[in-house]
Amino acid sequence: MNFRLLPEWAEQDAVMLTWPHKDTDWADNLARVEPVYIELAKHITTQQQLVIVAHNSALKVHITALLNSANVSLNRVHFVVTPTNDTWARDHGPLTCAAIDSPEQLKVYDFTFNGWGNKFESALDNQINRTLVKELSSTNNQYQALDMVLEGGGIEINEHGVLLTTSECLLNKNRNPDLNPNDIEALLKEHLGATSFLWVEHGYLAGDDTDSHIDTLVRFAPNNTLVYVQCDDKTDEHFSALDAMEKQLKTFKTADNTPYNLIELPWPKAAYDDEQTRLPATYANYLIINNAVLVPTYNDANDERALAQVQKAYPQHTIIGVNCQPIIEQFGSLHCITMQLPRGFLAGAAQ
């Protein structure tokens, strides 16, 4: 049976959040960060179910109290209690494929997460998916753990099986040093059902620990559309790389040899932490849920234009801004802290 990774706009059972706690780098910022998670929980549970990974039982009790106080519908919330290093669910979460000929049949892949090239401790996060699948996944689903290092934020796929990624991330020797580009393509064809590849050779965000994850730069949307960040400030350190990226995107062709529809996202003003380290603010790091797209905002003059541009890409969805200023202070954003779980993932989920 041949499986293919589902595009993010496929119908979902739930979104997974791995909650921040006092034993993570979020410790000094929990008072500002947890309200963002609560807001996400509110938006998600209006459309679908929510899975929350909690570091321990005490944290589960704490989260439950927060959600109760915020009037979040707890009958739509599922908890997985298991130790965690951090909160980046996009990168330690599962990648879920559907059988091409029988889309109700799912296969849940548990790739290896090594803290973005062994930059950070990740042993606990690398065990989350096993517990998640054991406790919540439908018994109809297949599960496979793989030795290959791969993060969800490093790849995008569309409804045609075209896989979009950056060379800086997937070919980085801190991930899979024994694999060459042909090896990686072969494995992604085998496991994720990729039909072809678009390798982005340019683009980065200062402060990003992921080695240029694609979800900070370029995203797929339906109907052969690419949504990408565009830097219009020639004095900004990112201008040259992002200008080169834009030029490359214009050369990409679909299977019928036509250019992709390109939708540019505005460039937010430079943001810095207390130590004057530049933070990786990007509007590309949005989350698609059932009937809505949650878009990070940064108290920036370009926020409204970013929402309008995302609306062009997903005209059937409601576009909702979420202030992610506290999230980028840990060098990620909204998409980075979430992972969608497609329809059929959860045992007993309402169909």
TrEMBL record:
Transmembrane portions of the chain: none
Pfam family, one: PAD_porph
Gene Ontology molecular-function annotations: agmatine deiminase activity; protein-arginine deiminase activity
Protein name: Agmatine deiminase family protein
Keyword Hydrolase assigned: yes
Keywords: Hydrolase
Hydrolase among keywords: yes
Recorded superkingdom: Bacteria
InterPro entries (alphabetical): Peptidyl-Arg-deiminase_porph
GO terms under biological process: putrescine biosynthetic process
Organism: Pseudoalteromonas distincta
